[in-house]
Amino acid sequence: ANVDLRTEVQVGDEMEAKVVKVNINFDEEIMDKYEVMASPTLVFFKGGEEKGRTRGLVKKAEIEEKLGALL
């Protein structure tokens, strides 16, 4: 898979979230697995389950809100 780890969100001493970029142009298998039809798409997981997603350009506040709900 063409996966590029971009950043980790850390609160205190514990790592809270991983943010991973996947280039769907080079990895059709991942695109199909997660039903990604447009770029950019953000898929939010918790415990291995999808808990939300955004498509297209979104404001930073919306991303922070979705992450905050999961952490």
Report on this structure:
With 71 residues, the chain is α+β, with helices and mostly antiparallel strands. 24% of the residues lie in helices and 44% in strands. The protein is built from two helices and four strands; from the N terminus they run E-E-H-E-E-H. Strand 3 (41-46) and strand 4 form a beta hairpin. The model is unreliable at 1-5 (pLDDT under 50). It has helices at 28-33, 60-70; strands at 3-11, 14-22, 41-46, 49-55. The strands form two sheets. It has a two-stranded antiparallel ribbon. It has a two-stranded antiparallel ribbon with strand order 3-4.
Helix-strand blueprint:
Elements: E1 3-11, E2 14-22, H1 28-33, E3 41-46, E4 49-55, H2 60-70
Antiparallel strand pairs: 1-2, 3-4
What is the number of helices?
2
Strand order in the largest sheet: 1-2
Strand content of the residues, in percent? 35-45%
* Shape estimate: globular
Roughly what percent helix?
Answer: 10-25%
Number of strands: 4
Average predicted confidence as pLDDT: 76
Distance between the termini: 27 Å
Q: Can you summarize the main beta sheet?
A: 2 strands, antiparallel
What is the element string, with H for helices and E for strands?
EEHEEH
Low-confidence stretches: 1-5
Structural class estimated from helices and strands = alpha+beta
Gyration radius, rounded: 13 Å
In short:
The chain is an alpha+beta fold and 71 residues long. Helix content is 24%, strand content 44%.
Notable traits:
71 residues; alpha+beta; two-stranded antiparallel ribbon; globular; disordered N terminus
